[in-house]
UniProtKB/TrEMBL annotation:
<protein>
    <submittedName>
        <fullName>Rhodanese signature 1</fullName>
    </submittedName>
</protein>
<dbReference type="InterPro" id="IPR036873">
    <property type="entry name" value="Rhodanese-like_dom_sf"/>
</dbReference>
<dbReference type="InterPro" id="IPR050229">
    <property type="entry name" value="GlpE_sulfurtransferase"/>
</dbReference>
<dbReference type="InterPro" id="IPR001763">
    <property type="entry name" value="Rhodanese-like_dom"/>
</dbReference>
<feature type="domain" description="Rhodanese">
    <location>
        <begin position="21"/>
        <end position="100"/>
    </location>
</feature>
<dbReference type="InterPro" id="IPR001307">
    <property type="entry name" value="Thiosulphate_STrfase_CS"/>
</dbReference>
<dbReference type="Pfam" id="PF00581">
    <property type="entry name" value="Rhodanese"/>
</dbReference>
<dbReference type="GO" id="GO:0004792">
    <property type="term" value="F:thiosulfate-cyanide sulfurtransferase activity"/>
</dbReference>
Length: 104
């Protein structure tokens, strides 16, 4: 039990992430480009799950997808490489903050 406790993935709710937007956190959205274009968090970078293995964040990074499943996988990959990663629970399905349709 303790082993899992120390290896658990840090996570935040979409409301907690929204409260941090003024700090301009590094956010990666691991959905596919067509999903990202349909609406994403302002300032988020599109890094599809298939590219998470080669992504190099600078400092703490928040990972989001549509529901939370892909972001958890991507966060696990990045954390295993030693990065400071936070998974966003519920994903864009739970996001009620500002969104932007956008560019890649």
């Amino acid at each position: 039990m303790l082993f899992n406790l120390f290896n658990s993935m840090p996570s935040v709710s979409t409301q907690e992430l929204e409260a941090k937007l003024t700090e301009k956190p590094q956010i990666i959205d691991v959905r596919e480009p067509n999903e990202f274009i349909g609406g994403h968090i302002p300032g988020a970078k599109n890094v599809p799950l298939r590219k998470a293995e080669t992504y190099t964040p600078k400092g703490k990074v928040y990972v989001i997808c549509q529901s939370g499943a892909r972001s958890k996988r991507a966060a696990t990959i990045l954390k295993s490489k030693g990065y400071d990663v936070v998974n966003v629970k519920g994903g864009m399905s739970a996001w009620s903050g500002p969104t932007r349709g956008g560019k890649l």
